[in-house]
């Protein structure tokens, strides 16, 4: 494991304390749905997180991030739109549809984060990469603020009804539906496998 001592010994310049702080935030982030659905998250905090997300790398400066902040009764509308998407996919199980209609009520804020489409195929892919990187930055920011967060996708992320609700075009992509709120309890830590590394030195 890399420690602050390792960083201090090897870095020509840098801030070991900053490394320690960053490492703690990264390692303490959890996917957590144990959220207080009644305690609001201030719009100011949500704005800070969305602004932070846009500092992710963006190769051609296409600024592909698209955000929708879903709160209040909008969460029920989001659930209805997602359920319609399920029905269009041939999923008609009443229990599944009812669960889908209510699932976004579990958090006071749901961020729908989209990636703007691009007519050039490689830029379209890079747009999504940039947005995904921004989502991770946002999740780390939420952790640093003491918020619980959960990155969701699935059929809801592909539903045209959800895209229409949040102002995305059919050709745009939903990269994440992020639940945000104040935690009711800690989520368990999960073991991480060591990275798979190939070294090419000649």
Give the CATH topology: NADH Oxidase
Note poorly predicted spans: none
Identify the strand order in the major beta sheet.
1-2-4-3
Proportion of β residues?
A: 5-15%
Q: Strand count, sense and closure of the main sheet?
A: 4 strands, antiparallel
The CATH superfamily label reads NADH Oxidase
Number of helices: 7
Structural class estimated from helices and strands: alpha+beta
Order of SSEs = HHHEHHEHEHE
Distance between the termini: 27 Å
Query: How many runs of DSSP E, i.e. beta strands?
Result: 4
Determine Rg (CA atoms, Å).
19 Å
Q: According to CATH, what is the class?
A: Alpha Beta
CATH architecture descriptor name? 3-Layer(aba) Sandwich
The average pLDDT value, as a whole number, equals 94
Structure description:
42% of the residues lie in helices and 14% in strands. The protein has 202 residues and is an alpha+beta fold. α1 (4-10) crosses α2, α3 (43-53) packs across α6 (121-144) and α4 (74-88) runs antiparallel to α5 (94-102). The two termini are 27 Å apart. The model has no long low-confidence stretch (mean pLDDT 94).
Give a quick precis of the structure:
By secondary structure, the chain is an alpha+beta fold.
Pick out its properties:
7 helices, single chain, four-stranded antiparallel beta sheet, about 15% strand, 4 strands, alpha+beta, NADH Oxidase, about 200 residues
Element layout with pairings:
Elements: H1 4-10, H2 16-28, H3 43-53, E1 65-71, H4 74-88, H5 94-102, E2 109-115, H6 121-144, E3 148-152, H7 160-165, E4 173-181
Antiparallel strand pairs: 1-2, 2-4, 3-4
Helix pairs in contact: 1-2, 3-6, 4-5
């Amino acid at each position: 494991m890399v420690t602050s001592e390792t960083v201090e010994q090897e870095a020509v310049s840098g801030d070991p304390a900053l490394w320690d702080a960053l490492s703690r935030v990264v390692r303490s982030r959890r996917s957590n749905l144990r959220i207080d659905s009644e305690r609001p998250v201030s719009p100011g905090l949500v704005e800070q997180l969305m602004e932070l997300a846009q500092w992710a790398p963006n190769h051609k400066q296409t600024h592909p991030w698209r955000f929708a902040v879903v709160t209040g009764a909008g969460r029920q509308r989001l659930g209805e739109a997602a359920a319609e998407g399920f029905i269009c996919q041939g999923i008609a199980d009443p229990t599944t549809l009812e669960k889908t209609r209510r699932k976004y009520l579990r958090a006071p804020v749901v961020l729908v984060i989209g990636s703007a489409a691009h007519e050039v195929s490689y830029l379209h892919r890079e747009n999504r990469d940039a947005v995904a990187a921004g989502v991770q930055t946002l999740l780390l920011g939420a952790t640093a603020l003491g918020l619980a967060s959960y990155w969701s996708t699935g059929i809801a992320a592909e539903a045209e009804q959800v895209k229409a609700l949040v102002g995305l075009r059919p050709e745009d992509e939903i990269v994440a539906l992020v639940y945000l709120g104040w935690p009711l309890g800690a989520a368990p830590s999960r073991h991480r496998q060591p990275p798979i590394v190939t070294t090419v030195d000649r």
